[in-house]
Amino acid sequence: MALSVEGLHKSFDPGLFERRVDVLKGLSLEVHRGETFGFLGPNGAGKTTTIKAITGLIRPDRGRISVCGLPHDRLEARARIGFMAEQPYVYNHLTGREFLEFHAELLALPRARVGARVAEVLELVSMTGAANRAMRTFSKGMLQRLSLAQALLGRPELLILDEPMSGLDPVGRRDVRDLILAEKERGTTVFFSSHIIPDVETICDRVAILVDGTVRAVGEVRELVAQEAEAYELSFVGGDAVDLETPLLASHRGSDAWWVRVAGEHRDALIRELAASGARLVALSPVRSTLEEFVLRHYEGGGR
Fold this sequence. Notes:
- The chain is an alpha/beta fold.
- It has two domains: 3-220, P-loop containing nucleotide triphosphate hydrolases (Rossmann fold), CATH 3.40.50.300; 231-288, Alpha-Beta Plaits.
- 33% of the residues lie in helices and 29% in strands.
- It has helices spanning 47-54, 75-78, 96-106, 111-124, 140-152, 170-185, 197-203, 221-226, 267-277, 291-301, and strands at 3-12, 21-31, 36-40, 62-67, 70-71, 81-84, 158-162, 189-193, 206-211, 214-220, 229-237, 250-253, 258-263, 280-288.
- A hairpin with a 2-residue loop joins strand 4 and strand 5 (70-71).
- The longest helix is centred in the middle third of the chain and has 16 residues, at 170-185.
- The protein is elongated.
């Protein structure tokens, strides 16, 4: 298991005379080795707090976290993590190349290999041309790219990305998607949070939906959207479709058959009514919701 989180709790004290705020409420999840795992949730759900607990930036009140089978607070575990924060922490007076060389020292990379590895990750994030500029001149998107290069520098086993698409233009988003997929091909486990649901749907093996500090759903995208059908489409022949009492969302009569769409809660009633009228059902298929629709229902159900 690349990442295991069990019963994580975290609360914060906002200040004098104010009640503590419970942010994480028994959060549990598992991320398998080599998979790309999407972490979805509305603002304030606890995504960044969870990531900070995993990376050791904050201490949970209680719960257990393991990284690649090791307690997350051991140096051996932290050495296996590459982390990109939502708001990159940078030194404005350094150039992009100097920033990466500094992080290479922190990672204790062999000096003889630092230059080549820095050049490699700069190329990966399309920042070679700006590598010798001071970071104070970088746009938000450029800082995002450089922060991603820093996360990749040590060839981590577990790559944790907090909103990696934030601030990127469409070309930048495509490049990051391609890079994540390339890391997956190399066997890297990728755990990332995002608000951009189509990107998550495109590249993730599994997703978890976090609402109000708890995981509301977790699984493969196709499994999650298959759990519930908004409507059904039916085709049938014979019978008197004109006199159907079951409410329909849409209908169309062809030369030899009827096609109708009915809400999920009315499906069984329509099938019984068709059978009673002598019609013969020839096709029945669910109309699946998209991941975005599925996620939004959970957000709204969580009161957000």
